[in-house]
Each structure stands twice: as structure tokens, then as C-alpha cells.
From TrEMBL:
Fe cation binds at residues 90, 132, 136. Removes the formyl group from the N-terminal Met of newly synthesized proteins. Requires at least a dipeptide for an efficient rate of reaction. N-terminal L-methionine is a prerequisite for activity but the enzyme has broad specificity at other positions. This is Peptide deformylase. SUPFAM superfamilies: Peptide deformylase. Keywords: Hydrolase, Iron, Metal-binding, Protein biosynthesis. Its EC number is 3.5.1.88. NCBIfam families: pept_deformyl, PRK00150.1-3. Binds 1 Fe(2+) ion. One of its GO terms (molecular function) is peptide deformylase activity. The active site is at residue 133. Pfam families: Pep_deformylase. Belongs to the polypeptide deformylase family. It catalyses: N-terminal N-formyl-L-methionyl-[peptide] + H2O = N-terminal L-methionyl-[peptide] + formate.
Length: 159
């Protein structure tokens, strides 16, 4: 188990477009495991490679539901529907929360750690988390989409 250092805003690496992953080797598998350990350590529900200083199209999501740990390599939203507005935070912006509008449903095409392509559908909070992480891979930060910032105590009353 290896915890990586989180990149906090502001940092150039957080606003760069990431490169596609072409090599699916043991190094990638170790990196994914380290990303997961880091996300859990910092209590996140998602983490994108730029947040640990790597400009590659790699993200992980685990919102603690039945889907468990989702590894997204070279992900792309291929379909989206509806809208939802809800609170969002980011491990690169400790203590900052804001309401962000996202699609309520997404269909995402990605590759797993072995390079095998898959398509996944998600709704609600899982769809939100996936859109947030995929944005990171394009250098897009949630702060550019915040409709209204939220105080931390206001967030807690929402559960
Ligand atoms: Zn984030």
C-alpha cells in the first residue's frame, strides 16, 4: 500500500489535458492500486491522475455503493441525459464545496487495467462523480462549473 502526495490547487498539472494511456502493464496496475489507496486515505469518492501529478487519462471512482471500485482508463462520455444540481467537493480543493449542475445519466466508454474496453451506465451521484473525474482528465476543474459555493456546515445538514 502506497499513499501518493495529493496535488492541491493551484497547480499547472491540474489544468492540463491528459494523454491517452497506450501501455497496459504492471506499472499501470500498481499506479491504479496506489491511486485507490490514496483516494481512501483522503476520504474521496474519486481521484484523477493529475491530482497525483500524472497527466494520463486515468481516473478511479468508488462512491461506496454496489459498483465498488471503478477504474476508468481513456474514458469518454458517449451519451448523457437529464440534469441534476448537487453539492460537490474535490480532494485538490480541501474544504471547498459548491453546487454543480451535471447530467443525471451518463453512458461512458472506457478501458480497464488490462486494456479491455467496456461501456458503463450511471445515474445520480455515481454519474456526478464520474463526470467530475472525467473533467479532470481534460484539465477542467469543478470550480469552473460551481453555481453557488456552500459552507461546510450547510453541507452537513444535508447528510
Ligand atoms: Zn476533483
Amino acid at each position: 500500500m502506497s499513499i501518493m502526495k495529493l496535488v492541491l490547487y493551484p497547480a499547472e498539472v491540474l489544468e492540463k489535458r491528459c494523454e491517452r494511456v497506450k501501455i497496459f502493464d504492471r506499472k499501470l496496475a500498481v499506479f491504479l492500486d496506489d491511486m485507490y489507496d490514496t483516494m481512501i486515505e483522503f476520504d474521496g469518492v474519486g481521484l484523477a491522475a493529475p491530482q497525483v501529478g500524472h497527466t494520463q487519462q486515468i481516473a478511479i471512482v468508488d462512491i461506496g455503493d454496489e459498483h465498488g471500485r471503478i477504474e476508468l482508463i481513456n474514458p469518454k462520455v458517449i451519451e448523457q441525459r437529464g440534469e441534476q444540481v448537487g453539492p460537490e467537493g474535490c480532494l485538490s480543493f480541501p474544504g471547498l464545496f459548491g453546487e454543480v449542475e451535471r447530467a443525471d445519466y451518463v453512458k461512458v466508454h472506457a478501458q480497464n487495467r488490462k486494456g479491455r474496453p467496456f461501456v458503463m451506465e450511471a445515474r445520480g451521484f455515481l454519474a456526478r462523480a464520474m463526470q467530475h473525474e472525467i473533467d479532470h482528465l481534460h484539465g477542467i476543474l469543478f470550480t469552473s462549473k460551481v453555481l453557488r459555493y456552500i459552507e461546510e456546515d450547510e453541507l452537513e445538514t444535508e447528510g
